[in-house]
Design goal:
Blueprint (H helix, E strand, L loop, with lengths): L5 E3 L9 H5 L4 E4 L3 E4 L8 H10 L5 E3 L9
Antiparallel strand pairs: 1-4, 2-3
């Protein structure tokens, strides 16, 4: 499979850190508000990245994955 592609709009990100909890191998908070992320995480992170994108309260995360909805 092809690795996941993702982009985070850092101007929109408010540092809620839901992504850090859901995909800690992809997203990291540096300090209280600076988000660092892997723009090309491994395919094994696909589900976690999808969940992180869906959980972002300000929709700052864009991926090439379908949006994850609980129960689907």
């Amino acid at each position: 499979m092809i690795d996941v592609k993702l982009v985070v709009d850092l101007n929109r990100c408010q540092g809620y850190a839901q992504c850090v909890f859901l995909a800690p191998d992809v997203f990291t908070l540096h300090g209280e508000e600076a988000l660092l992320y892997d723009a090309g995480p491994a395919d094994g992170e696909r589900e976690h990245v999808s969940q992180a994108a869906a959980a972002c309260p300000v929709h700052a995360i864009t991926t090439d994955l379908p949006v994850h909805h609980d129960g689907e």
